[in-house]
Amino acid sequence: MYNKLQYISQGETIDEQLRNIHQALDAGCKWVQMRFKNQTIKDTYTLAEAVKLLCEEYLANFIVNDDLHLAEKIAADGVHLGLTDTKIDEARALLGSTKIIGGTANTFEDIQNHVKNGCDYIGLGPFRFTATKEKLSPILGLSGYFDILQKMKKNKIEVPVYAIGGITLRDVNPLIETGIYGIAVSGIITESLEKKLLIEQLNEKLYAKVIV
Ligand SMILES: Cc1ncc(COP(=O)(O)OP(=O)(O)O)c(N)n1
Ligand SMILES: Cc1nc(C(=O)O)sc1CCOP(=O)(O)O
Ligand SMILES: [Mg+2]
């Protein structure tokens, strides 16, 4: 069972990224997606090497954003691919069946396509406006999630769906009610001055209905 809380890293420099990721791991995060946009290949690789070691130390999943070949080269746990990134089936052909491949979706059709191509989880968003990502797809809101998750249920499509985009603690319960599996967040964890308490609160809501 995948962890229901994904932290998507932030930071303009290697040091800032590592600080944010280390703090999130230390606070209890068990899934890190390294998202280091518009950087040199060298700096991205340097950061990835360090993040991999950190995630191994904290027994956390390490997913690389966008860069399939970096994910393979660094032997990350997987990759997250957007609608304009490498295709899911191409990534699966390169990484094989043991690696985690996530895909971004904004519509039910996006999800159908990703599942057909062998995606392991879906990042469905944006929930609301967020400045963390520059080119947002149309905002979904709660009704958007409800409609899409209903279509998935009707069509018996079962793949973990993570909500993403401007999510705060108070959004978790209403989002869970739509049928999503988990959430992917960036800003609220990066900016929090009480990361451990926040992650505990997020996980309490995310796992409230999980029967052990
Ligand atoms: C879990 C998750 N969902 C969606 C995204 C967005 O990915 P993408 O559309 O490729 O946009 P960028 O993150 O590359 O700006 C994600 N990264 N993770
Ligand atoms: C990386 C990303 N992708 C999105 C999408 O809608 O595909 S929204 C987003 C930003 C998530 O960060 P925050 O929790 O700070 O809003
Ligand atoms: Mg991308």
Automatic annotation (TrEMBL):
Pfam families: TMP-TENI (PF02581)
Annotated residues for binding of Mg(2+): 66, 85
Cofactor binding note from Swiss-Prot or TrEMBL: Binds 1 Mg(2+) ion per subunit.
InterPro entries per the UniProt record, alphabetical: Aldolase_TIM, ThiamineP_synth_sf, ThiamineP_synth_TenI, TMP_synthase
Enzymatic reactions: 4-methyl-5-(2-phosphooxyethyl)-thiazole + 4-amino-2-methyl-5-(diphosphooxymethyl)pyrimidine + H(+) = thiamine phosphate + diphosphate; 2-(2-carboxy-4-methylthiazol-5-yl)ethyl phosphate + 4-amino-2-methyl-5-(diphosphooxymethyl)pyrimidine + 2 H(+) = thiamine phosphate + CO2 + diphosphate; 2-[(2R,5Z)-2-carboxy-4-methylthiazol-5(2H)-ylidene]ethyl phosphate + 4-amino-2-methyl-5-(diphosphooxymethyl)pyrimidine + 2 H(+) = thiamine phosphate + CO2 + diphosphate
Any Gene Ontology CC annotation: cytoplasm
Alphabetical keyword list: Magnesium, Metal-binding, Thiamine biosynthesis, Transferase
Pathway in which this enzyme or protein is active: Cofactor biosynthesis; thiamine diphosphate biosynthesis; thiamine phosphate from 4-amino-2-methyl-5-diphosphomethylpyrimidine and 4-methyl-5-(2-phosphoethyl)-thiazole: step 1/1
Role, per record: Condenses 4-methyl-5-(beta-hydroxyethyl)thiazole monophosphate (THZ-P) and 2-methyl-4-amino-5-hydroxymethyl pyrimidine pyrophosphate (HMP-PP) to form thiamine monophosphate (TMP).
PANTHER family documented for this protein: THIAMINE-PHOSPHATE PYROPHOSPHORYLASE, THIAMINE-PHOSPHATE SYNTHASE
Similarity remark: Belongs to the thiamine-phosphate synthase family.
Protein name: Thiamine-phosphate synthase
UniProt gene name: thiE
